[in-house]
Design a protein that fits this description.
By secondary structure, the chain is α+β, with helices and mostly antiparallel strands. About 30% of the residues lie in helices and about 20% in strands. Strands 11, 12, 13, 14, 15, 16, 24, 25 and 28 form a nine-stranded mixed sheet that branches.
Length: about 600
């Protein structure tokens, strides 16, 4: 889109939304500070104690607008069959007019901010450029921390670079009514819409997180996953970490985990093994591509962390806590009386707090002080363990891919796939056990979440799986990354976690590293290759032989039940690749021979 077409689109959207002003964001520090100062003056933000938390601010959302709204998130492809069974679909010929009516006059009394941004390092072959139009200064401030944005990006787009148009409004025009501290629209008017054929994103009615920061889940996963399918790369919900051994040799590893499975913790891990280090390239999204050498490389399209605050502490994630000591935006956390932040799991609660609902909270109150989905937004440069390659436009070479979920039984601590195809099969079976549900029969059942991408695949899941197989192409197995299923959450008969997790996960990472170096032994089982116990470094770890046996147990009946459930899941998805069924049948055959 050329300069004229870009500004014509902005003018068209301004005519529709009818803002009082249009402001082009330059991405500067002065602009950022001016915007935050204005928000504080309007009592839409709280400036935190500069001695405790320098240059940091707290925001509090409306209780109806606290998380991604998956039931209001749509893939509006021209054909319903292109969205598939895992997405909400609306005919774009119906959705467009409906949303156009909502957007009509939605920015009256407000400023339309023009945010030029890029996902991925500037100059990367698969970097995706975007323009987000929004009436939310909160969104502008967060996008500045989460993406590469500003005048220099606008110059590139105006120079003729294709871009993804992103339109966002909180859906609260100021017509004969005062503004709210957190404006948003009722749930039935919220729409987070993706138009894959147009590479277009429209979001209306929410100001929170992935609903409103359109570079994140909307562009970097849902739209980028479809672009990747068309252009030969893979947009994935994965961390990227750099693992270095005592000899100074480094390898890069990807990890896909559903929420509440320690993805950010793993990307910022402090190993307990002497001489080993973990550095982060990214904690949430990876774009994977192949080069002419046939090997897999990855970039992190983001420039910041939008992390869940709950449970984050100096004990569980020291590096994250160091990162957010300054220059951070907090959303829906609690505040101490001296204007510092607090959330459950951070440390012992003080006697009195200001809750995320802005009420006085006392120790012992049933309601949590911070919202369970409270967040911090912070520039990636503040991570103490940031890898120097985080901004490398050529990407980093991937040696291994981890997949996993929260499983109390069945799944061992670590399993190496027999092959690339077997690894894709492992990714397809991912999921976590349901720990609480309205229907008690569901508790303990596995909620499948292939590659932790279920809410983020922008097209049919069968085509998504096919794309994983197509990525292999003619590349030999020796050049492809090894794939591992890991499970930090195995429990004993008393319901206690067997594996200590956190920094001790470096012991598993070490075995994976040495498998990639062809230096560690492995034992073949029907479900994959597992460590020889002598090859898993347990130095200084207090763990019994019985617990180790449980961690690496292959329960034939449990696995056959798992495969039966997985086969039913495959059938529910429709016409998925035969290669997945082939892997399932081969695994079943190997298990049936176990003990013969």
């Amino acid at each position: 889109m050329n300069y004229k077409a870009l500004h014509s689109w902005i003018d068209e959207m301004a005519s529709l939304c009818k803002p009082d002003n249009i402001y082009f964001c330059d991405g500067s520090e002065a602009e950022y500070q001016d915007m935050l100062k204005k928000l504080v003056n309007e009592k839409k933000a709280v400036k935190l104690n500069p001695e405790k938390r320098p240059n940091s601010y707290a925001f509090f959302s409306d209780p109806s607008d606290v998380a991604r709204v998956e039931n209001r998130t749509f893939i509006a492809s021209m054909k319903e069959s292109d969205a598939g069974p895992t997405n909400n679909w609306i005919d774009p010929l119906i959705l467009k007019p409906k949303m156009t009516k909502l957007f009509d006059g939605s920015m009256r009394g407000r400023t339309m901010y023009v945010i030029p941004f890029v996902m991925g390092p500037i100059g990367a072959d698969i970097a995706q450029y975007g323009i987000q139009l929004t009436d939310s200064p909160y969104v502008v401030c967060n996008m500045r921390l989460m993406t590469r944005m500003g005048e220099h990006i606008l110059d590139i787009i105006e120079g003729g670079k294709d871009f993804i148009p992103c339109l966002h409004s909180v859906g609260y025009p100021l017509v004969n009514r005062p503004d709210l501290d957190w404006p948003s629209a009722p749930i039935e008017e919220k729409y987070i819409a993706h138009f894959p054929e147009e590479r277009l994103i429209w979001s209306y009615g929410s100001g929170y997180g992935g609903n409103a920061l359109l570079g994140k889940k909307c562009l970097a996963l849902r739209i980028a996953s479809k672009i990747g399918q068309e252009e030969g790369f893979q947009a994935e919900h994965m961390l990227i970490l750099k693992l270095t051994n005592p000899e100074g040799i480094s390898k890069f590893i990807l990890g896909a985990f559903p929420s509440a499975c320690g993805k950010t913790n793993l990307s910022m891990l402090i190993p307990t093994l002497k001489g080993w280090t973990v550095e982060t390239v990214g904690d949430d999204i990876a774009w994977i591509f192949k080069k002419k050498d046939g090997k897999f490389y990855a970039i992190n399209p983001e420039k910041g962390f939008f992390g869940v605050a709950k449970g984050t502490s100096y004990e569980t994630n020291y590096n994250a806590m160091k990162a957010i000591e300054k220059n951070t935006i907090f959303t829906n956390v609690a505040l101490t009386e001296d204007l510092d932040v607090y959330w459950e799991g951070m440390k012992d609660a003080p006697d009195k707090l200001i809750s995320w609902k802005k009420d006085i909270w006392h120790k012992g109150d049933k309601e949590p002080a911070a919202h369970p989905n409270s967040r911090f937004t912070v520039p990636i440069e503040q991570a103490p363990n940031l890898a120097k390659e985080y901004d490398d436009k050529d990407g980093v070479l991937i040696s291994a891919i981890l997949v996993g979920g929260r499983r109390a039984n069945t799944i061992p601590l670590v399993i190496e796939a027999f092959s690339y195809n077997h690894g894709i099969f492992m990714g397809s079976m991912m999921g976590s056990e349901i720990t609480a549900a309205a229907i008690s029969d569901s508790i303990g059942k596995v909620r499948r979440d292939p590659f932790a991408m279920l809410p983020f695949i922008g097209y049919h899941i069968k085509d998504y799986f096919n794309h994983w197989f197509n990525m292999k192409g003619q590349t030999s197995e020796a050049l492809l990354p090894k794939i591992y299923y890991v499970n930090w959450f195995r429990k004993d008969e008393q319901g206690n976690f067997i594996w200590p997790g956190f920094g001790e996960n470096s012991r598993v990472l070490k075995w994976i590293f040495e498998r990639c170096e062809h230096k560690a032994k492995g034992i073949e089982t029907p479900i994959g290759i597992m460590p020889d116990k002598q090859d898993l470094d347990l130095t200084g770890l207090n763990i019994t032989d019985k617990d180790l046996d449980t961690l690496f147990e292959v329960d034939k009946k449990a696995w056959l039940d798992e495969l039966l459930d997985l086969e039913d899941y495959y059938k529910s998805l429709g016409d998925i690749p035969k290669a997945l069924y082939e892997e399932l049948y081969q695994e079943r055959e190997r298990l049936n021979k176990l003990g013969e």
